[in-house]
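Appendix C: a fully annotated inverse folding record. The material below is reproduced so that readers can follow the format used throughout the book. The structure is listed first as tokens, followed by the designed sequence.
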């Protein structure tokens, strides 16, 4: 039996279109032009404060407004975070299979806890998870290892696996001393080889078997 913790954005769900819509609403209110999806995807990974910082730099907005625009983004995104967000293909079946195999599952995301909880519930993912650590659950976010430690502590299993899509996830896992499995179809910026990883996969259909193979090697 293993504890398997998943990242959320770009790993379990393709959430960038709702993040883009909220960011562009906030940019419009600030008098700035909108971002295309590819640009928004490059800003995702560190949570809302770094996303807003990068957006503001790109639009030459004064950083004195950062806290106010972050607060507005939390508000706007919090009101509409599931309209355009989709679960990646095969995720639900894979989670059911993993639970059936006796594994315990959690989520560790840099997204604030409230929208993360809402997304899990609205998209039918909540019943599979026993733990959720969000970007504002602790005082620090990934790549700090503390959120991962907190997620695994809540699950209590000897073997820990962390599944994510980004540089932030790979680094948090490395610092936490946990095996990292890279989902290659998310919002990563670097080539797959650049991220420290135990294994990688591009489709959830293959994921439960990958976990069994890794556990057999432990
Ligand atoms: O909200 C973000 O920027 C990243 O969220 P994630 O940690 O679920 O990928
Ligand atoms: Mg992610």
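Designed amino acids, in order:
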């Amino acid at each position: 039996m293993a504890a398997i913790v998943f990242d959320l954005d770009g790993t379990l769900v393709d959430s960038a279109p709702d993040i883009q819509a909220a960011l562009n609403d906030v940019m419009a209110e600030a008098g700035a032009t909108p971002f295309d999806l590819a640009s928004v995807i490059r800003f995702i990974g560190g949570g809302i404060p770094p996303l807003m910082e990068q957006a503001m730099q790109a639009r030459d907005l004064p950083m004195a407004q950062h806290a106010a625009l972050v607060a507005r983004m939390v508000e706007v995104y919090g009101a509409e975070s599931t309209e355009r967000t989709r679960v990646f293909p095969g995720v639900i079946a894979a989670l059911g299979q993993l639970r059936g195999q006796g594994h315990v599952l959690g989520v560790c995301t840099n997204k604030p806890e409230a929208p993360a909880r809402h997304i899990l519930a609205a998209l039918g993912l909540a019943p599979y998870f026993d733990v959720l650590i969000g970007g504002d659950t602790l005082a620090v976010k990934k790549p700090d290892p503390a959120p991962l430690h907190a997620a695994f502590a809540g699950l209590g299993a000897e073997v820990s696996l962390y599944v994510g899509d980004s540089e932030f996830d790979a680094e948090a896992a490395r610092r936490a001393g946990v095996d990292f499995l890279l989902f290659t179809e998310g919002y990563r910026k670097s080539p797959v080889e650049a991220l420290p990883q135990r294994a990688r996969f591009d489709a959830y259909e293959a994921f439960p078997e990958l976990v069994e193979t890794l556990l057999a090697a432990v």
